[in-house]
Design a protein that fits this description.
CATH superfamily: Ribosomal protein L28/L24
CATH class: Mainly Beta
Order of helices and strands: EHEEEHH
Strand content: 25-35%
Number of helices: 3
Strand order of the largest sheet: 1-2
Helix content: 25-40%
Radius of gyration: 18 Å
Structural class: alpha+beta
């Protein structure tokens, strides 16, 4: 399963950087690292359909569900 949140669409990023000590002294790259979104497996109750939906969703997506409601958010994402 892809590590992408269906609600926010956030996926993995390639991050690279230098430590501050390296920046100060010489050029020595630290390499690239893959950063993944904070995905959680959740059972979300949808009162309009009177059932639970299992979703692997980011924590920001959970905040979106709390703000806009489960049914509207999951329907917009195409999960219902």
């Amino acid at each position: 399963m892809a590590k992408i949140c269906p609600i926010t669409g956030s996926g993995s990023l390639v991050a690279g950087g230098y430590s501050n000590a390296t920046r100060a002294t010489q050029f020595n790259p630290t390499g690239k690292v893959r950063k993944y979104p904070n995905l959680q497996k959740k059972r979300i109750y949808v009162p309009e359909q009177k059932r639970f939906v299992k979703v692997e969703i980011s924590t920001r997506g959970l905040k979106t569900i709390q703000k806009n409601g489960a049914f509207a958010t999951l329907k917009k994402a195409g999960l219902i």
